[in-house]
């Protein structure tokens, strides 16, 4: 069976990285978090994406692999959250094993909370690990570096995110156009799977969360941008026609902090929180 890259499927110039958001749960509670992880889950609250935890099942990841068999298998697939290592180790192992069994290049992005809890045979099926420092988890980062240096065969990529912008400052909705959206060089370069929805960029779920509105997710589902669409390959290949036009008008252009013009919104340093749990030993 021939394998097609997402780059070829989409007919775009950019290489594509697949991001699999497995949860919106986190052990840290950074201010200005795209997932509002500094807020507790509250089934009676007004934040619709914080009413209950979102957790991807191994079955949802398997469905993604099956429906896109032969497409994008050599692209980098980044498991991320929230924080992936707060999930039960059994679930983490199953997700890694599923992606690996389908021949997909897999790694993860983590703040280091429970990296050492993942069995070494599963950990070494990860091609790369992003260690994501926020300033309030340095103990975990140092602990993980030492552990991985002795036990891990893949690539360790150090990231440092000490500052973050307020996503709400970029909600300039309905100021974009379809043409702007279709010509955005960020669109589809970070294909993001937040089960069951395939998002065409890394920011659309964060913008839905900041808006506290699931309408765009419903539009993507109706348009077939989901892993349970048996014709997903064709839906994605014809993205210029199948991507909901309101998405392009609403989220693209000035509503996206990747492409928005400079505004008076300086980055804010991420602050420790009294509920932070830095390291699981």
Q: Which labels suit this protein?
A:
two-stranded antiparallel sheet; 281 residues; 11 helices; 9 strands; 2 domains; TIM Barrel; alpha/beta; seven-stranded mixed beta sheet; single chain
The termini sit apart by 44 Å
Indicate the percent of residues in helices: 25-40%
- Tell me the major beta sheet: 7 strands, mixed
What does the radius of gyration come to?
Answer: 18 Å
Strand fraction equals: 5-15%
Number of beta-strand segments: 9
The top level CATH class name of the largest domain = Alpha Beta
Query: Helix and strand succession?
Result: HEHEHEHEHEEHEEHHHHHE
Whole-number tally of structural domains: 2
CATH homolog superfamily of the largest domain: Aldolase class I
Helix run count: 11
Uncertain regions: pLDDT < 50 for 5+ in a row? none
Outline, from the CA principal axes?
globular
Strand order within the widest beta sheet:
5-4-3-2-1-7-8
At the fold tier of CATH, the topology name of the largest domain is: TIM Barrel
Mean pLDDT: 91
Please state the second-level CATH architecture of the largest domain: Alpha-Beta Barrel
Secondary structural class: alpha/beta
């Amino acid at each position: 069976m021939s394998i097609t890259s997402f780059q070829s499927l989409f007919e775009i110039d950019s290489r594509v990285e697949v991001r699999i958001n497995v949860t919106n749960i986190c052990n840290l509670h950074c201010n200005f978090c795209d997932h509002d992880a500094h807020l507790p889950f509250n089934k009676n609250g007004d934040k619709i994406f914080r009413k209950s935890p979102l957790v991807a099942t191994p079955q949802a990841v398997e469905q993604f692999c099956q429906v896109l068999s032969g497409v994008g298998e050599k692209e980098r697939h980044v498991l991320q959250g929230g924080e992936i290592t707060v999930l039960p180790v059994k679930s983490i192992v199953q997700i890694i094993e599923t992606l690996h069994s389908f021949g997909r290049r897999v790694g993860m992005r983590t703040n280091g909370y429970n990296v050492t809890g993942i069995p070494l045979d599963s950990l070494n099926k990860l091609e790369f690990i992003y260690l994501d420092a926020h300033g309030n988890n340095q103990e975990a980062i140092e602990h993980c570096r030492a552990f991985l240096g002795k036990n891990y065969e893949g690539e360790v990529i150090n990231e440092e995110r000490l500052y973050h912008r307020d996503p709400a400052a970029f909600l300039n909705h309905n100021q974009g156009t379809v043409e702007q959206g279709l010509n955005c060089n960020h669109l589809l370069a970070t294909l993001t799977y937040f089960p069951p929805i395939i998002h065409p960029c890394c920011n659309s779920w964060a913008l839905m969360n900041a808006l506290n509105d699931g309408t765009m997710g419903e539009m993507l589902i109706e348009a077939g941008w989901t892993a349970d669409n048996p014709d997903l390959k064709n839906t994605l290949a014809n993205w210029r026609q199948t991507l909901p036009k309101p998405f392009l008008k609403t989220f693209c252009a000035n509503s996206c902090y990747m492409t928005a013009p400079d505004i008076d919104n300086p980055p804010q340093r991420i602050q420790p929180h009294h509920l932070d749990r830095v390291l699981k030993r």
